[in-house]
Amino acid sequence: PALTRLSHYLLAHYQKGTRPVRDWRTTTNVAIDLMVYAILSVDEKNQVLTTYIWYRQHWTDEFLRWDPEQFDNLTQISLPVESIWVPDILINEFVDVGKSPHVPYVYVGHHGEVQNLKPIQVMTACSLDIYNFPFDVQNCSLTFTSWLHHIRDINLSLWRQPELVKFDRSVFMNQGEWELLYVLSHFQEFSVKSSDSYAEMKFYVVIRRRPLFYTVSLLLPSIFLMVMDIVGFYLPPNSGERVSFKITLLLGYSVFLIIVSDTLPATAVGTPLIGVYFVVCMALLVISLTETILIVRLVHKQDLQPHVPEWVKHLLLERAPVLLCIRDRKKLSQSRTQSSDISRQAENNDSTAKLNHCSCEDPRESEMVGGARPAPASARHAEGSPLMHGVLQEITAIRQFLEKREEFRDVAREWLQVGYVLDVLLFRAYLVAVLAYSITLGTLWSVWRDA
């Protein structure tokens, strides 16, 4: 009976269409509070943030007062929200009506204090910066203001202290993709085209993405493929397997980019840094394949190729091994010298054998050594001269062929040595570029994450 009498007493002559003050010059002060319950979704493409918040309002209604002694010491009562005056406080960033549960009642104290507590699913526009994805931190604002009443009619204030609001994560669901860092609050006045001022309370919800999933599914596979590309340089350049290995890596990386393209956030205003990272990695793989093709072309020089130019020998076979600290450069030079010595020795032996053979078959020398039977010796010499002449021609042709082949081998060996040295030089330059790029990217991500 006390609740019924009090409700009839308060609402019998209540005018909910009028601001509840006895003097129109009195300002209605509305204290608001905000607690973030969950981050439901972050739509980077449409720049929309969906959050679930617990929102509280507190104001004084001068027409909802009573004496508790007359109503069985009742100091608080719940009344239908449709039956009393409620301030028209909205969120400026609203883009869609969320699926918020309807709370039909408010609490009213005997001094006229009205408490309106309700959960709200908020879909608000937010300027999302995805450049640092997946180590990005987003700062989205929720601006509460009266849509119609200026500051002389309705003023806003903060229910609790700013420090309590900032680090209040007591009701936040901390198991999703996003982590709540803090909530900042700021009061300000604004006016439109020099008209009346309006009160405005801003809450800045600062959230940070948890990057573990994206690190495992995006960064680590890319890093593994780049490591395999670096390891592929240890394949011998003259084996013929390096080109196919590099092409397989490039094809695998292309398939990987197709798979992860749906995972990367897309906006019309910018590209995340990880997208640039993938493009640069693809470019590095292409450069690595180009370098491999160049080296294979050098080490597979065919016949009738010119000798290595002297300036190339000076730079790559003398200077570069010293600078690059190639350990087997002495062995290569020794083998090249030994092969040249062997070819010259074979040439001298062939010339000596030819001279000795001709001297032994000289008829005058035969006559001087033993002139007992000169006629048969000259006859045998006359008979064997065409045969010996043909044999000497065949031997000369074989010798020229061997000399030419040895020359081709020397040219191929020189180009092979140039290819090996150039391969080491390009590999170390490629490795330095990859390390510098990785360190720069990691430093930028670390600095931005800490900032």
Please characterize this protein's 3D structure.
With 451 residues, the chain is of the alpha+beta class. It folds into 2 domains: 2-209, Acetylcholine Binding Protein, Chain: A, CATH 2.70.170; 211-327 and 395-450, no CATH class. The chain contains 9 helices and 11 strands. The protein has helices spanning 2-11, 162-166, 212-231, 242-260, 273-299, 310-324, 329-360, 363-369, 374-450, and strands at 28-43, 48-60, 76-80, 89-91, 94-97, 105-109, 113-125, 137-146, 154-158, 178-191, 197-209. Strands 1, 2, 3, 5, 6, 7 and 9 form a 7-stranded mixed beta sheet that branches. The chain has a 4-stranded antiparallel beta sheet with strand order 4-8-11-10. Strand 6 and strand 7 (113-125) form a beta hairpin. Helix 3 (212-231) runs antiparallel to helix 4 (242-260), helix 4 packs antiparallel against helix 5 and helix 6 packs across helix 9. The protein is rod-shaped, with a radius of gyration of 46 Å.
Distance between termini? Answer: 61 Å
The radius of gyration computed from the alpha-carbon positions, rounded to a whole number of angstroms, is 46 Å
Q: How confident overall, as mean pLDDT?
A: 81
Strand content: 15-25%
Helix content: 40-55%
Helix/strand structural class: alpha+beta
**Pattern of helices and strands:** HEEEEEEEEEHEEHHHHHHH
Largest sheet: 7 strands, mixed
CATH superfamily caption of the largest domain:
Neurotransmitter-gated ion-channel ligand-binding domain
